[in-house]
Every structure is written in C-alpha cells, then in structure tokens.
Write a structure and sequence with these properties.
By secondary structure, the protein is an all-alpha fold. 63% of the residues lie in helices and 0% in strands.
C-alpha cells in the first residue's frame, strides 16, 4: 500500500464483495510481492527485460556500418 507524506492512503480500499474477489485480490498481492509481476509482464510481451533489449542491440550492432555501430552502442549504454 502506498502512503503519502500526510499519512493518508493513496490507494482506495479494495471492495471485496465475494469469495472470488477476495481470492483474486490475494493472488494479485502475492504475485506483486513475490516479484512475479515483472516476470509475468515480460512473458506476456507487455514489457521487455534488459537482456532482451541488449540482445536486440547486439544483433543490430553486428549488422550495422561503423557509424551506425557507434551510435547504437551509445544508445544501448544510455538505456
């Protein structure tokens, strides 16, 4: 839960009206707490992991000319 400087909650309280709501909420909280959310988002293709981004740049660098290689290398290092 996020808390602001004033001590108030920045997220509204969950409205759990059924057992399914409670289980879904608990599953989501557990998924986020265990770090599984990022893995799920990567596997779903919603976000890209750093290793995938680096691999993409390495493949582009391998086929680029010298000027493009330098630009791609700088761009990759900035990310």
């Amino acid at each position: 839960m996020l808390v602001s400087c004033g001590g108030g909650s920045s997220a509204p309280a969950a409205s759990l009206k059924s057992d399914v709501d409670s289980i879904s909420y608990a599953y989501g909280v557990n998924l986020a707490d265990q770090g599984g959310l990022m893995q799920y988002l990567e596997q779903s293709g919603i976000i890209q992991g750093a290793s995938n981004i680096e691999y993409d740049y390495q493949m582009r660098i391998a086929t680029a000319d010298s000027t493009q290689k330098q630009a791609l290398q700088k761009e990759m290092n900035a990310k």
